[in-house]
Each structure stands twice: as C-alpha cells, then as structure tokens.
Amino acid sequence: MKKMINLKINDIPVSVPEGTSILQAAKMAKIEIPSLCYLKDINCIGACRVCVVEIKGRKGLTAACTYPVEEGMEVLTNTAAVRASRKTTIELILSTHRKKCLSCVRGNHCELQKLAYDYAIDEDHFKGEEPAYEIDDSTPYVVRDNNKCIQCLRCVSACNNVQTVGAIGQIRRGYDVRVGSPFDAGLDTTACVGCGQCIVACPVGALYEKSNIDDVWDAIADPQKHVVFFTAPSIAATLGECFDMPPGTHVERQMVQAIRMLGDVKVFNMNVTADLTILEEANELISRITSKKLDKPPLPMFTSCCPGWIKFMEHNYPSMLPHLSTCKSPQGMFGAILKSYYCQKNHIDPKDMFVVSVIPCTAKKFEVTRPELGQQGIPDVDVALTTRELSRMIKGAGIVFKDLPGEEFDNPFGIATGAGKIFGATGGVMEAALRTAANILDGTNEKVDFMDVRGTQGIKEATYRIAGAEVDVCVASGLGNARKVIEMIQSGEKNYLFIEIMACPGGCINGGGQPVQSDSVRNYVDLKSLRSAVLYDSDKENDLRCSHESPVVDMLYDEYLEAPGKAKAHSLLHTTYTPRPVL
Questions:
Q1: Are residues 316 and 203 in the same domain?
Q2: Would residue 130 show up in a list of annotated catalytic residues for this protein?
Q3: 94 in a domain, yes or no?
Q4: Which of the residues 202, 206, 358, 496 could staple to 231 if both were Cys, CB 3.0 to 4.6 A apart?
C-alpha cells in the first residue's frame, strides 16, 4: 500500500499516492493541465514546457508531468505567470511550424491547434525560419512531414521504447536537430514494420497514413469495376469516435449503411475470414502436434494475422520464421476468396474486381503490396483503408453518420461468429483458436470462454487441459513485449505450445489506423478496454460463438475449398515469408 500524499492544487485539497505527478494529481482534482510531449505510458520527458505550474515558495515554474507531489505542496496552475509562459512557448513552437491547418489531416483534431485557440495565440508573433524539409513518403503506409514536427519525441518513444523497432530517432545537433531515420534516409530503408504507433502518438500532423481514398473513389466511379468492401472486426468498435460518439459505441450497422451509400458497392464482413483463419490455423497447429515427420514444422506456433508482427519477425528473427503459422491474415484470405471463388460464382473477371479492406492498421497497407498475396500478378486486395480514411470518405460524401438507422452486411459473406469478432482485441485470436481446437480434439463445445487470455496486459500466460494434455499458451501485444516472449523461448525459459502476437499494444482496437483521441482522453481514459468491451459484448450476444459453427465457412469448404489444410485451401489461404535485413 503506497503512502498517501496530501497537497493543494488551486486551493483544492487532494490526496494521492506517493510518486504521483502534479499533472496526474491535478486530473484527480478535476483540473486539466495542458501538455504536448506527455503521453501516458509512452512519453514523460518534460520537454515541451507547456505543462508548467507554480509551486508556492519556489522560484520559477515547474513541469507538472515530471515533478512528483510532495506533502503539503501548494500548486497553482492558472496564474498570470503560468499563462504567459504557456502562451510564449506555444507561439515559439508555431514560429517554426508549417501552419497548413486547412489541408492537414489533423485539422480540428490537432493538440497544438487546440492550445492555440485556448490561449488566444498570435501565430505570427515570432517570425521563425520557414521549415523546408523534404516529406518522406517512401513507404506505402506512412508519411513523415518534419515541417510540422514540434520535437515532442512521442513518436520516437513509441517506436523505440514501446515497440523496440528504432526506425526513427533524433538526428543531427543543435538548431538543426530533427526526428528522422539513420543518415536522413527514408523510412523504407529501415526496419520499420508499419505498425503506425508513431502516428497515433503524434499530437500534430507530422505523421499520417498514406491515403488511398482517391484510388477508391476512382474505382467506384469506374463502370467497369466491381467494387467490394470488407471491414475488420474492430472497425465497428471505433468508427463512431470519428463522428464524436463516445468510445465504446458499437456502430456496425451504421458503418455498413454508410459504406453502401458511397456508391454501387458490396459490403462484406471480414469476421467471415477470421473464422476461416481459425479453421486453417487450428488444423495447422494440430498437424504440427501430431505429425511424425522428421522435418515437421516446429513448435511453438505463432499466429500470423498481424502484418506488423510478421515484418518484425522477418527483420529481427528470420531463423524463427518456420514457427509462424503459414495462414494468410483474414485480409489476405478474404481477398483470395473474392478473386477466386466469388469471381467464378458471379462470372466476374478478377481484373475487373476492386477489393477494399477497411482495417485498423497501417501495416495492412504494406501487406497488400506483398507479391506472395496475389494470383497471376493480380493482388488479392487492391487497397487497405484505415478507420480514419473511411471516416473521411463518409464525411466527404455528406453522410450524416449518427442519424443512420443501419443495415446488414451483404450476402454471402455477412454471417460470422462471435469468435471472429473478438479478433480485434489482444487475446481474441487465441481464444477463438482454443474454442475450435478444444472442439476438434475433445469433441465438445462446452468450453467457450477462455478468460485468462483476455485483458489488455502486454503479456498473458495460461495453461489449459485439452485432449487430456496440459497446453501452455501465451498472448503478447506490443512489439516490445513480443521481443521479450521470443527471447524467453530462445533461452529455454518458457515452453509454450501456441502464441498469439499483435504488433499494437492492446491489439487491433489500438491499431495505427484507429481514431486519434485528444490527449485529455488518451491520458485518462482506458480506450483499449472500452473498445475491447464492444467486441466481447458482441461475441456474447451472438448465437454462434465458435468459428467451426460458421455456416459461411461450411459453405466455402463444401463448394470450393474441400477441407482445412487440403491442397486447394492451402494454395489459396496460406503463404510464405521473406527474411529481411536488420537495419
């Protein structure tokens, strides 16, 4: 039990645990102290100096984000000196910031812009040197614009400390210091995995996803194209936030209707191929366990749904690639099914089909460019749109999202199970796989809820008894945690059978393509838990809870794929990996 510290903030008595910062204590007193560089659990360096406060009896101003409370301390957060200091700091930041707010993707959702309004800033008070950095758009998934960077270093901390990728950092010195990649090269020369956690950490518009919106509008306008959308599980749990709906609002039906209103398009449910992934992955795991071949694939087996995680393995642990499931991600599987089975059934030339996935992830933009994920030179998926991009399309089409009554997904890919839905939360793939593996090996559907693998913790372990044997499993989210798990396996400290990894902390509900909330929300609201709850509630309400119960998956195997792991299913739904240099 931590010792409690008593203090006053703006004459309001507050009692908080020892070690609490002034910034956190103020929040408990319902007082918000502004900041730009601070981001809970990611960055706390006191660099921006926007969060300064006065402490009675002390000279100068103190950064509230880094200073711990003390017994009897009296803090003032809104004095003339504090406001003047904050105003000057913000004006100095703006003096070297490219102020293209009308065309910036973070317009109206920019933390710097909000503070400028709040403090009645004169953006031209200080005339700094006009920034003229070359924009880095070398990757298919993220754009880096140093002309808007404010040196808060939140992206650097997310990349280096949370994800342990190290694709960006501070380079050069003195006045010329900036955030960049080694030797000022493009991101495409680094081991960047495209997770996008730098984007959601950025308080301004210095980092954003490479947009494919125009490509989609062009396809919709082309009378020769058959445009098909499919949406990932977590989109329905987060899209509402882009329309000022509270975090944790389930908007699946409104989402489907809004997409359909964009033009002559079909709207399918990616949860279908989440279910399909489980059937293929469970079959693969059982095959690895029971195989008597000397050259059988090794255990433990890692899930392969997350493209950021896959690229991380290719760069950092190429010798471990045989441990990855060979299953394509649900995105890859859906594209493959659409451009084979669906095209054949509907007499469509695959060249005339334009497939759009709506995903919570920027790494999926890289995945669609993989040559392994295509047929005869035709990509399985043409474009991957983030949640944010879809919201911009809906707004651009003048659709009043909040007022939509909602509609159902199109057939034949509309019905999916609750197991497919929970893919969007860390532990969801593991739980879905355990439900089906237990059925295959034990012949029972009695156990459906595997609670030990739920929750937003970075690493979760569990042991289950399946087919008379103890099975050790592990779930990790965030690539820093993935690295810890891999190194425990390599050292022999852990001996898991099956491991789920998601690149983004908390899983897809916290993906690099998800809505970026204000700092006042991100620093004090558990977004990951609120968003995850939508998926688990939807699973609980579904009459179908296990992937092997899906009538759509049964249809696919009966009419086209034959059986999990069979030659046709394997050629269409499985893939290979590419060792990449460690840079």
A1: no
A2: no
A3: no
A4: 358
